[in-house]
Amino acid sequence: MLLTRTYYPWRSWRGALDEMNRLRQEMDRVLGAMGGEYQAPPSAGVFPLLNVSETSDHYLVRAELPGVEPGDLNLSVMGKTLSIQGERKPLAAPAGARHHRRERTFPSFNRVIGLPSEVDPARVEAKCEDGVLLIRLPKSEAAKPRQIAISAS
Amino acid sequence: MSDGMVKRDEATLAPGAEPTRPAPVFSPVVDIYETEPEMVLLADLPGVTREGLSIRLEDDILTLEAEMGDAFGASEAPLLQEYRTGRYYRQFSLGEAVDRDKIAATLKNGELRLVLPKAASARPQRIAIQAA
């Protein structure tokens, strides 16, 4: 019997689906790189919008929350899950004020996201700066990349 | 707008104007109210520092222009980007005369508060009616 070592993803229907997904992600990446910028599909009713990134030892989560005081926020971390809960308190206009425009919103929110790997809840830091919330979540030791030394035989 | 949805329209620059660097331009959301002595403009400008904000009043046109910080730090690898960063730009035409020397602006937690006191000539004045 002839055995090949070529990866053949269409062996099963599940493999085909995985392959389609991989292809779609790759197309998104390439098109995004060509356009200079790739915008995630806008998600209606989801608040706050989040930007998530990673370094070798941290995940960083940013949210635009203008006018939100740190005391009005409630963050919690469990395993891979981060939850951001809070509200924006409106500034009261003085009595007798006539409004010309009222475009800003003052929502209560509760958003939960899953992180790619576990974080160390004891060392999570968060700060609000210029209306942007920045959460630094240190990856747990098991999730950090490790250099593996190759010993010469 | 009450469902907590954030509205961030892309603004249109003045005809013929072109941004100097290729960043998206957004129109910030504002509240404007008026009391007897002043007009107050409140704008949401998350990610904007004092240095990055410019407010100009030329003739009757009030211009807000601001730079947001970058979406990610230099050493970070993006995993998910739901909002973009760039510049804020919006112009207002002021209908009423404003006392230009007394305009005050404060920026706190990404919220701009701009107080425009009305010029004495624009304030409502009570006219005494004399008995004939």
Annotation keywords:
heterodimer, A: 153 residues, alpha+beta, four-stranded antiparallel sheet, three-stranded antiparallel sheet, 8 strands, extended, B: 132 residues, mainly beta, five-stranded mixed sheet, 0% helix, 41% strand, elongated, disordered N terminus
Task: Characterise this structure.
The complex is a heterodimer of chains A (153) and B (132). Chain A is of the alpha+beta class and 153 residues long. Chain A is built from 1 helix and 8 strands, in the order αββββββββ. Chain A has a 4-stranded antiparallel beta sheet with strand order 1-2-8-7, with no helix packed on it. In chain A, strand 7 and strand 8 form a beta hairpin. Chain B has no helices and 10 strands. In chain B, strand 3 and strand 4 (38-44) form a beta hairpin. In chain B, the strands form 2 sheets. Chain B has a 5-stranded mixed beta sheet, with no helix packed on it. In chain B, strands 3-4-10-9 form a 4-stranded antiparallel beta sheet, with no helix packed on it. Chains A and B meet through strand 1, strand 2 and strand 5 of A and strand 3, strand 4 and strand 7 of B.
